[in-house]
Design a protein that fits this description.
mainly alpha; two-stranded antiparallel sheet; globular
Length: 296
Amino acid sequence: MTTKRLDPRLYQIAVLAGLVLFGFTVLEFDLTIAQIVVTLATAVGMQLACAHLAGLRGDTGVRSALISGLSLCLLLRTDVLPTAAVAAGVAVGSKFVLRVGGKHLFNPTNGAIVALLTLAAALPELDLSVWVSPGQWGNTAYFLLLMGCLGTVVVTRAARADVTFAFLACWAGLLLYRAWSLGDPIAIPLHRLQNGALLLFAFFMISDPKTTPDSRRGRVLFAALVAGGAYYVQFKLFHTNGLLWSLAGCSPLVPLIDWLLPGTRYAWTGASVLESAHETPSVVRGSTGTVRPAVF
């Protein structure tokens, strides 16, 4: 007799929703109730529409859409409600459009933020009024977020903890190296590591099991590439949001890493199967030789 595991996305939703509520009521995030409602409603609505068009049965992926929407509420800032709606729509819609080998190519939240930042820079006349707010966390919020992130590892039984801790180790090593090479005090890299946005990135974005390599060796390699890319963007190109740009730039390498270092495809508990009356479901062959339907 097998025991059905709780979908880890439920815990992630609880953590992210709690952080949004805490940030809105206590930390006074530059966030309005209207933006929260518009972001979440658009994310869920887009998920349901795309799921219907794709022929998803059973769980339609609303939980994943809520995670994307809540993550956007925590990271993305805008004074224009249509921009918030576009961000949520792009985040969820990209999962169904930008796919390689049965997996979506970009982390939904990361892809949407980078797309909006790029569009805002390329077409300033659109007046999208969009930015990322990484420095909004106090000590109390940072501690609560750290506890929530560590709890995520426990709930998921460390299913993708390797990529998170590999990234944090690489990023910390690079920051310490920079401090040593410049003669900076140790307090500077330690302060950079005590950042709520970094924890969100490490535990809820780069660790997305649907957009990371399938094998452990591949995930460790991916984490090192993202950390190195972020270091280059932030300290060589002197651009902000280096982590987000690096993850977006490295994500297209995942199919190549999966080909070089194959592993077993991850599936959410109770995830939907892509089935249609006129379409044969895609399949994924794991390292054990089992064949499973491809899922979103």
